[in-house]
Amino acid sequence: MSTSRTAARMKRIVPFYVMDLLARAKQLEAEGRSVIHMEVGEPDFVTPETVIEAGKNALYAGHTGYTAATGIPELRQAISDHYARSLSISVDPARIIVTPGSSGALQLVMSVLIDPGEEVLMTDPGYPCNKNFVELVSGVPVGIPVDADTNYQLSSTQIGNSWSGKTRAVMVATPSNPTGTVVERDEMVRIYAAVKERGGHLIVDEIYQGLVYDKKGYSALELADDLFVINSFSKYFGMTGWRLGWVVAPEAYVESLDTLAQNLFLSCASISQYAALEAFSPQCLSVLEERRQEFRKRRDFLLPALQEIGFQIPVTPQGAFYLYADSSRLTADSFRFAYDLLEHQGVAITPGKDFGIHSPDKHVRFAYTTSIENMAEGVRRIKEFLSR
Ligand SMILES: Cc1ncc(COP(=O)(O)O)c(C=O)c1O
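# pyridoxal-5'-phosphate complex -> structure
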């Protein structure tokens, strides 16, 4: 008998296709080829200097041990203060649980809410790991196809139509990965009502909060206390590698989340937590605002440039740093297209296949996590590729 048998769920948890593409891109670069990276979902800016300093200071101050599983009290308070200052929302720090990235928060929330066989509704396309967090607890992820008609987001009507006797929760991400679109506040109110009417839970992933370009963002925390809001230091704060996020939970769930966090993680990295205290300082926030403006410029450059060469992007994404482009006028197979583009022109983008099963062949994702100069060169190369 084989000793390498894995649990059945592992058959349903697939790796990112883009990782293979990234490995190939690295190989090409090692061979001396130039590659324009528009596949990477993390800011190209390093963590702001003042946060790095705070991290160094934390080390020398001896903050090298475990902390409380829910996070150091100063950080929970600082996150609460940030909601009050930036969005005028009052959040009890006791409801804020600091986690190893929002990935840690998503694991905790799914584990606390979902029993085997229960369904979680989410968008297709969507962030690929969401499905796997549900698989991990033997739940059933249900992808609902979304397109330009609903801004590539779930609508309350779709939620109503997809609800079954087994549905337990709905996940939305605003702004979203891979589409960069937001759920308008009015629609979020309707979504919340649709979920609550049916006795379910709403989980809102706000990891790209702060990276909204055309109007002031909001948080679903404005609407009610009995929903789960996930956030992270990764994207807006430029701290992907520090592995720090948080969840704001309904009071009744804090104890269970704490118990689980103790068991799964013991605590988050202490150094990261002390460094993150500095992330909310006026000095750091002004650096982050400059970066937000830069991302907006990049979006405003890349969107028309891609449309001009034949990609269709029917709604202007309002946030994050992604453009989810319909490539069907240019290719019938976006997966092959992404590979050929890399091989022939040294341009790396993410094929739609990574984000779900709803028309993945017709879509690719561009991340504007590189300079306008690089993107201009990328677009030039794609144009050349298309005219061959
Ligand atoms: C929508 C969304 N949620 C969650 C995550 C996880 O990020 P982290 O664990 O770094 O906070 C990502 C990362 O790309 C994401 O795009």
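# post-check
The chain has a mean pLDDT of 96.
The longest helix spans residues 282-308.
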